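Data card: per-record layout.
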Amino acid sequence: MDGERGEALVVDSGEKRLNELGYKQELRREMTLFKTLAISFSTMTLFTGITPLYGTSLQYAGPASLVWGWVVVSFFTWFVGVAMAEICSSFPTTGSLYFWAAHLAGPVWGPLASWCCAWLEAIGLIAGIGTQAYAGSQVLQSIILLCTGTNTGGGYLAPRWLFLVMYIGLTLIWAVLNTFALEVIAFLDVISMWWQVIGGTVIVVMLPLVAKTTQPAKYVFTHFQTAPEVTGISSGAYAVVLSFLVSQYSLYGYDAAAHLTEETKGADKNGPIAILSSIGIISVFGWAYILALTFSIQDFSYLYDPNNETAGTFVPAQILYDAFHGRYHSSAGAIVLLFVIWGSFFFGGLSITTSAARVVYALSRDRGIPFSSVWRRIHPRHKVPANAVWLCAAVCALLGLPILRINVVFTAITSVATIGWVGGYAVPIFARMVMREEDFRPGPFYLGAASRPVCLVAFLWICYTCSVFLLPTSYPIRMDTFNYAPIALGVCLGLIMLWWALDARKWFKGPVRNIDDHNGNGKV
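The structure for this 524-residue chain is written out next.
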């Protein structure tokens, strides 16, 4: 008896709760709070959300809207993060969002809720890999251009076919790395965290110091300026809404900690801590990065000139170039800092691939994807869902093929990623908000009476975020300016719901237990 009691005492609290929910431990539970935080932080990333959309958001309504937009979006993001942290503490499973949705919605609506949530999350995460690959290729394109002499000096601007090769190459590298043992991924994500913290600090401090002149605080914090002759948008309110997109795109991904809870020690406590810590760190560092870029602008109109040194393709690269070339008559410093930013994209894509594979694995484990038996297989040696990793990589590569013909690929992929990823948050949060309190079994992180108000604000904010990413971002609307996200999502989600109505509702019951319920009541 003493031996059995001693063995029970050492059972991890997260594993104990996992067993109570009907799942046995299959993945290695060896990740610490710090490693889980590193992966969550790396998925959100300091540079990867802000950098690719900074130029367009700045152009919509000027610096003040961009700077204060980050503060506003950060404020509402905390409501979403806190709501998710409470649920994560109660349900520390790899399936995370879709598992939460199934159990919070109850036995009647649970299957449909988990079906919608799982597919939204899978779509968002796989498209998220594409955003990292595209933006990483964009930074690499600027690095090559500056290294070979700049646009004004005969430098090499990578053509579409080479851009696509870089895009697919990054996707394949991330898949290969994710096929190795989890320790490799965790180690790289720890490097990523320090890469971003140290690299971000260097950029935030160095850039304004290097720039020969800096913008006055009044310009950065109060100057409002629209560009209807470029964007076609004359409404100031509409321009402000679109200028917030950079912040809304950047401030999500903190659910990565939840995807890894079956591999995290004490996940019922450490999962929520990792979620909230990631939001806090990114909120502060992200705002500092935006301020550093904005204060260091030398000539606003020149940033978008197609004849400038970066061919007008990448505003942050031009800001870095102007700062270093203006003081040192060399682009070397700008190239080094661009490499730091590129590293952030690389690590971010690696982490998102990890999260996407876990979601596909969890959905396959519950037989929610065609050929589930293939995608749920665990690598016998490395104990990772290798087949799910390569499925995500293959779909992501297909998403990039339109690069050869279409100019607005990044806009579409970004919108799909954000709506899918953030939309997946809405389902369990709404279910938590409307369920009876006595049916909820809280974990160590519990909001009590504040839960419903927090969930309501979070749900409304998510609905608003998804809506604005469906809006046209440029007028007049033509084939080369059309936001394809509504059509892409409409077709994809339409097919998924048609599948549900015709067939899946007959057999998909949501998360499938892999431990027998000896009590026979099926309750969790």
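Known properties of this structure: Confidence is low (pLDDT under 50) at residues 1-9, 517-524. The two ends are 27 Å apart (CA to CA).

See the next section for split statistics.
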